[in-house]
Structure formats: structure tokens, C-alpha cells
Design goal:
The complex is a heterodimer of chains A (242) and B (420).
Chain A: E1 2-11, E2 19-21, E3 28-30, E4 33-43, E5 48-52, H1 59-66, E6 74-79, E7 82-83, H2 89-99, E8 100-104, H3 115-124, H4 131-144, H5 160-172, E9 178-182, H6 190-207, E10 210-215, H7 218-223, E11 226-231, E12 234-239
Parallel strand pairs in A: 5-10, 5-11, 8-9, 9-10
Antiparallel strand pairs in A: 1-4, 1-6, 2-3, 6-7, 11-12
Chain B: H1 2-12, H2 14-52, E1 57-61, H3 79-92, E2 98-111, E3 117-127, H4 129-132, E4 142-145, E5 157-160, H5 161-167, E6 174-180, E7 186-197, H6 202-207, E8 208-212, H7 213-219, E9 228-231, H8 239-253, E10 258-262, H9 263-266, H10 268-306, H11 308-316, H12 321-356, E11 359-360, H13 362-365, E12 377-378, H14 384-401, H15 403-410, H16 414-419
Parallel strand pairs in B: 3-8, 5-7
Antiparallel strand pairs in B: 1-9, 1-10, 2-3, 2-6, 2-9, 4-7, 5-8, 6-7, 11-12
The chains are: A alpha/beta (242), B alpha+beta (420).
């Protein structure tokens, strides 16, 4: 379960400490961007949830904070009972290794590695498996996402949809508690998007993994059982799949 | 996985990696060339000092060393001191060859057949031809005429090639030699030039005037006294240990009024030059390393800029900053290895050429005295330490300079890495 309580995220520009004088009144104020202004929500295990909203509403920021990719300004986020706001650098690394999978809009695959090696990257760090087990698990998940026979291809030799499948396989292979997908269909055509979303939905049902998407794609929202709308850094409303 | 990924990443940017490796190779070649040339100058200079000028060590009478640069004639080793020394040598260091010399400043005057007269100052060496060849190599450097031999040496003079050239003297000409005798009187001697020597030591070539010691003994009323005893203490490599042994035994022998000095003490200016050279060599190699570091840093920086998302992804997967740094260090290391292989392979034939043929700077530098006792055809030597340490240093620099750009990126939050 993911529990988000009154989370605030404020970005300071590079000259963060510099106070700027306001024209009206001449009062000093720190120049800052308030990406999240106090978001609270709860996502149950196995949910297939979308966080939607216009650009700048705070979707990606919320996913980044949940995935320990960024630090919280104030508030609290718990994943499976672990309060991530109190974790140190190493503990966050371990949490990401074991509990969180990521899928990105631009796939972020390592181009010099094959599809299989890209998936293996997620398992090597766990140090739980032998080389043979890692290979077999990577091949197994690649088969499940429909890339059987393409495991020795490098990302550059595959289509956008196939690359996103590798990315899904990489996120899922370690059986994480939650997968955070930041606009996973933004670079795909509508047909491929639907296929990919169907695949993720199937995997969600099969493994019970929680999926959280950030999106403004209606196709994604249609596939989700729950949609949380953000606006100006706050939860505006919630609904079921559109 | 790190090695495989780093290797593949290096090959991914083939042209960039090869250009950086080529820059490192050029740096290594330049450093090895410079290091080998300076080491070669050192070695050749040391050999030329010992073989033609200072020998391995010299023994002087008390007070001479401090004033040796003026070549005084009032601090002489007497015949009785020589006898004690000879006895001690026969007993203690029978295998060490030595020779007696009388050194003094002289003036040479030459009038040619056209009536033109010229004069030059030189250094007169009264030598014992029989024992001198066991200590100095000068007798093997005759350019024209002959070295002292048989019974003809009495009134002849052998000149260094430089001084002979400056005076316009050839073998067979007569010159006038003026120098101080014992007590300071001036003696003038008209003697035929019977030989001209060209040694590897330009100072000797441009100043040396050799005459027979017995003849000078009579003419300068030396009474058998000499200014120095010159010792053969083996090769340049053997000399320090041989001298240490000799010096210790000589001090214990308590020979009154005599002191022994190594060639390094006698040629402090050359030794100082060699030490300065080491600093210059170090500075040049340091700059080479800086250039390599900038090259590798730049390559890795460009690589990092293009791979921010991959780096962010690795961190998102749970890979530590340390792991990613090691990955980039390994990439830098591989580029360094490539640079070292190319650099060393190119350096070997270049050094071989420099050892066997050298570069003739005489056209460029003429008669300029560079302080070293070497001819202007400069040779390198196989300086194995340079061949080992320069590539090793380049490898370390290549590896660690990759850290600089990596560190800047990795200290950011992962979200910032993606965002940037």
C-alpha cells in the first residue's frame, strides 16, 4: 500500500538562497516553485491507478517522490509500511532495488546492452540469484511481454513498442510491490499504446503488482480502475476509469 | 557487468574514444621522448665527464679543492706524498688504476705563415701518457696527428679540436705555450702540435692542451709535484659504490694533506643542471598529464551529457553513485589503456632511433654551450623507469579524471538527472 500524507514539494532555482525583491511593496521573498502543495492519498495493493492532470500539475513530481527519485520538502510517503521520508541514501537504494519498478516515457534502456541484458540489470543488484537464474528469469519475462526470440537484439534494433516492452519487463522482473510509470505511452502510437496497456493490465492481474501511471493520455485513463486528478499541486478530484 | 558495459560504451563512441586515446598516446610519446632524451643527456654527460675531464674521482692537496676553478699552482701533491699514496694503493686498491696530472691555466699564441698572430687561453694538462690511458679515454679520440707515443712526446703538444680550430692550428704547426711554474714564474715554451683530439666533451675540446708531464716537470720546476691524482673507479653505474668504498678507506688511511673528491663534487655545476633537468622533466610530464586529464574528462563529460537518462535509470534501479563512478572510471581506464598501448608502441621505435642515431642540433645551436658535457648530436637512452611510470601515470589520470564530470552529475537527485 502507498500512503501519501500532506506531501509538499518546493523547487528552488539554482540560486535558491537568493532572495528577490518584489516590485510591489519591496518585501523579500525566496524565489521558489511549489510543485506539490499538500497532497494526501492512499493507493491500495494491486491497484491500477492513473495520476492525471495538465502539464505542471505535479504528476511527475508525485511519482518521483513516491519512487525515491527526489526528496520531499515536507509530509510523509509510506510504501508497504516504510516511511521513505526518513530513509537515508542507502536505504532508498535498497527500497528501489526491491520494491519499486520504473517505466519511463523514453524507455531509458542501455543501448549497448541486449534486451536480455537490460532486463538482467534489474536483478543483478539483488544478489539473490545465480547467473543462470537471472538469465532464465529475464528470458521468462521477455517471453511474457511478447519478445520471445528478440532477447539478443539491442534496443536500437527494435521498435518503440518493443523497447517499451523491454522496459516493462525490466520493471516487472524483480516482482516489485509497485511499478511507477511516467507517461509510458507518450511516445507510442494509439494501437501500440493499447497493446502495451493491455499487457500491463494482464500483468497487474497476474502478479497483483500495483501500477501507478502519470498521464494525460485518455487511453491510459480508460484502462485504469482509478484516476486521481491533480491541479496546481493539489488533488482536484478522483474518479474511476473514464 | 561493469567491465562489459564500460567496454561496450567505449566502443559505442569509437571516434571520440580513438581521438582521446590518440591524445593520450601523443602525450605518452612526448613524455617518454623527453624523459629518454634528458636521461640520455645525463648519462652521456656523466660518461664524458668521467672519461675526459674529471675521471671517477680526484685527489688534491689540502686547499686546492676550494680554489680549483682558478687552477692554482701552489697547492701541489709532493713526491713524498705520492710515494706514500702509491704504497697505500698497492696494498689496498691494487686493481684501481690512477694517473698523475698537473693542471694549470695557460695562454697559447700562434703566428701563421701570413704573419697573423692569435692567442687563446686554455687549460694545460701535464699527463703521464703511460698511465693516463688507463684513466682517461682521450688517447682514443685523436682526430689528426697522434697521441703521445714512444720517445717523441717530450716537446710536443696535443690540442683539443675546438681550441685548435679557433687558433687555426693544424698538426705540424708550432705554437707558444705560456703558463705558471712552481712559485708563480711564467714559463714560455715553443712546441710543435703533434695531435688534435675530438672527444665527446665539448669543454675539453675547446680548452684542453696536453703536454708530457716529465717535460713540464723540468720546464715548470715542479720537482716531481703534481696538482692531482685521477682515479678510474669503473663505469658511471659502478662509480658511486666504488667511490664510497675508496673514500672510506682513504679517510681511514690518514694520508696527511690529501683529500679525495668524487666527480660529482668536482662537477657541481653539471650535477645541478641534472637536478634542474629532473624538475623540468617532472613539470613537462605533469603538463602532459593535465592535458590527458582534460582530454579524458572532456570525453567522459560529453558521454555523460548524452547518457543522462541511462545514468538516471541505473540509479533508479538501485545502482549506487559509486557503481556508476566506477563504470565511468573503467571507461576512462579503457581509453587510457588504448592510449598507453599506442603511445608505448610508437615510443619504442622513436627511442630506438634516438638511442642509435640521435638528433643533430649542431646546425641549429652552433657552438652554444648548454652546460652538459655532450656533443650537439643528442642521444636518448632506454629509460625503463620512464617507460613504466609514464604509462602507469597516464592510466591513473585517465581513470580518475573520468570521476570529475561523473561526480558533478551524480550528486544531484535522480529526478534532477532526468530533468537536466
Amino acid at each position: 500500500m502507498i500512503q501519501i500524507e500532506n506531501v509538499v514539494k518546493t523547487y528552488f532555482p539554482d540560486n535558491a538562497g537568493e532572495r528577490k525583491k518584489l516590485k510591489n511593496g519591496g518585501k523579500d521573498e525566496i524565489s521558489a516553485v511549489h510543485a506539490l502543495r499538500g497532497v494526501s492519498l492512499k493507493i491500495e495493493d494491486g491497484e491500477f491507478t492513473a495520476v492525471a492532470g495538465p502539464s505542471g500539475s505535479g504528476k511527475t513530481t508525485l511519482l518521483n517522490l513516491t519512487g525515491c527519485l527526489d526528496s520531499i520538502t515536507s509530509g510523509k510517503i509510506s510504501i508497504d509500511g516504510h516511511d521513505i521520508s526518513v530513509l537515508n541514501y542507502r536505504q532508498k537504494n535498497v527500497l528501489r532495488q526491491e520494491k519499486i519498478g520504473f517505466i519511463f516515457q523514453s524507455y531509458n534502456l542501455i543501448p549497448v546492452l541486449t534486451a536480455q541484458e537490460n532486463v538482467e540489470l534489474a536483478l543483478i543488484l539483488l544478489k539473490r540469484y545465480t547467473k543462470e537464474e537471472i538469465r532464465s528469469m529475464a528470458n521468462g519475462i521477455l517471453r511474457e511481454v511478447g519478445l520471445d526470440g528478440l532477447q539478443y537484439r539491442k534496443p536500437g534494433e527494435l521498435s518503440g513498442g518493443q523497447q517499451q516492452r523491454i522496459s516493462i519487463a525490466r520493471a516487472l522482473v524483480k516482482k516489485p510491490a509497485v511499478i511507477l510509470a511516467d507517461e509510458p505511452t507518450a511516445n507510442l502510437d494509439s494501437h501500440t499504446s493499447r497493446t502495451i496497456l493491455d499487457l500491463m493490465k494482464d500483468l497487474n492481474k497476474k502478479y497483483g503488482t500495483t501500477f501507478v501511471f502519470s498521464t494525460h493520455d485518455r487511453t491510459v485513463m480508460e484502462h485504469c480502475s482509478r484516476v486521481i486528478f491533480l491541479k496546481d499541486g493539489l488533488v482536484e478530484r478522483e474518479g474511476t476509469g473514464i | 557487468m561493469i567491465f562489459s558495459m564500460a567496454w561496450k560504451n567505449m566502443l559505442r563512441y569509437k571516434r571520440r574514444s580513438v581521438i582521446t586515446a590518440a591524445a593520450i598516446a601523443a602525450g605518452i610519446l612526448f613524455s617518454i621522448f623527453t624523459d629518454g632524451l634528458l636521461a640520455g643527456l645525463d648519462q652521456e654527460s656523466s660518461v664524458n665527464m668521467m672519461e675526459y675531464e674529471t675521471s671517477g674521482a680526484k685527489i688534491y692537496a689540502g686547499g686546492y679543492f676550494e680554489k680549483r676553478k682558478t687552477f692554482p699552482v701552489n697547492f701541489l701533491i709532493s713526491r713524498s706524498q705520492q710515494a706514500v699514496f702509491e704504497k697505500w694503493m698497492n696494498r689496498t686498491f691494487a686493481s684501481v688504476k690512477y694517473t698523475l696530472r698537473y693542471s694549470a691555466v695557460c695562454e697559447l699564441v700562434f703566428s701563421n705563415t701570413d704573419g697573423l698572430t692569435g692567442s687563446l687561453n686554455g687549460l694545460l694538462y701535464g699527463i703521464d701518457p703511460e698511465s693516463d690511458r688507463f684513466v682517461f679515454d682521450t688517447s682514443r679520440c685523436v682526430e689528426s696527428g697522434s697521441w703521445f707515443s714512444g720517445t717523441t712526446e717530450g716537446t710536443s703538444v696535443v690540442l683539443g679540436s675546438g681550441i685548435a680550430h679557433d687558433l687555426g692550428v693544424v698538426v705540424g704547426d708550432y705554437i707558444t705555450v705560456q703558463c705558471k711554474g712552481r712559485g708563480g714564474f711564467i714559463q714560455t715554451m715553443d712546441v710543435p702540435v703533434t695531435g688534435i683530439v675530438r672527444t665527446g666533451n665539448p669543454v675539453v675540446n675547446s680548452t684542453a692542451v696536453y703536454m708530457d708531464l716529465n717535460y713540464l716537470n723540468d720546464m715548470l720546476e715542479l720537482g716531481g709535484a703534481v696538482t692531482e691524482v685521477c682515479l678510474n673507479l669503473g663505469t658511471v653505474a659502478q662509480q658511486p659504490a666504488s667511490f664510497a668504498r675508496f673514500d672510506k678507506a682513504f679517510a681511514e688511511s690518514a694520508q696527511t694533506g690529501l683529500s679525495v673528491y668524487s666527480w660529482q663534487e668536482l662537477a657541481q655545476d653539471v650535477v645541478a643542471l641534472q637536478n634542474t633537468k629532473s624538475s623540468i622533466s617532472g613539470i613537462m610530464i605533469f603538463f602532459m598529464f593535465v592535458i590527458s586529464a582534460v582530454g579524458v574528462s572532456n570525453t567522459i563529460l560529453m558521454s555523460i551529457m548524452e547518457r543522462k537518462n541511462e545514468i538516471g535509470m541505473l540509479k533508479a534501479l538501485g545502482y549506487s553513485s559509486g557503481y556508476v563512478k566506477v563504470l565511468f572510471m573503467t571507461e576512462g581506464f579503457f581509453i587510457g589503456v588504448l592510449g598507453c598501448i599506442i603511445g608505448v608502441f610508437v615510443s619504442i621505435p622513436v627511442t630506438w632511433f634516438m638511442v642509435n642515431y640521435g638528433i643533430d642540433f649542431s646546425g641549429m645551436m652552433g657552438d652554444i654551450d648548454i652546460g652538459y658535457r655532450v656533443s650537439l648530436v643528442m642521444h636518448s637512452c632506454w629509460h625503463i623507469i620512464g617507460f613504466l611510470f609514464i604509462p602507469a601515470g597516464a592510466l591513473c589520470i585517465a581513470s580518475f579524471s573520468a570521476l570529475i564530470p561523473a561526480h558533478g552529475l551524480l550528486k544531484k537527485e535522480i529526478a534532477d538527472i532526468f530533468r537536466n
